[in-house]
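DDE family transposase: structure tokens wanted.
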Amino acid sequence: MAHVDKLHWDAQHEGHDLEAQVEAYKKRYGYHPEVVIADTLYGSRDNRSYLARNHIRFAGKPRGRPPKITPENKDELMRMKAQRRPEYRERIPIEGKFGQGKYGYRLNNIRAKRADTSVAWINSIFLVMNLLILVRVFICLRNLAAKIASWVTKKSMPREIPFARACQFSSNRNAYLAAHI
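Answer:
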């Protein structure tokens, strides 16, 4: 789900918004995130110290020169690199959501003349994008419920016993033979 937490018209460095975004997350969900997966733009020293004070991990590259690989730290460095890779891949759908908004719903080309109309337009676009996600979730839940209902009905229906079916077939054949002799 995408949220519009801050909307401004002046060009500015977004890297200073991390603290406000983390606090908006805490206000929305009631707790701080375990990890922040963000662009390298948000990996400044101030942001990292804020995250460290709140026991939040930053899922970006460490600052400074990469440490020299030695036999003692090789396993730890490989583990950290392997951990960063899936976290980086989690960022791909987020960037895709930005692209969907910009090019699929024209967030990069708002043509409203007044600021309040532009805000309404932008929020409406995010509402539509979130509604489409919810529709997909509800369709998946409906399909899952239908599969469960089908499975439960199949399990609760009386099963055919192979012996009883063979007996029924032979009794029908005997009745047919008796009628036509």
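Confidence is low (pLDDT under 50) at residues 166-181. The chain has two domains: 1-109, 114-181.

Cheers.
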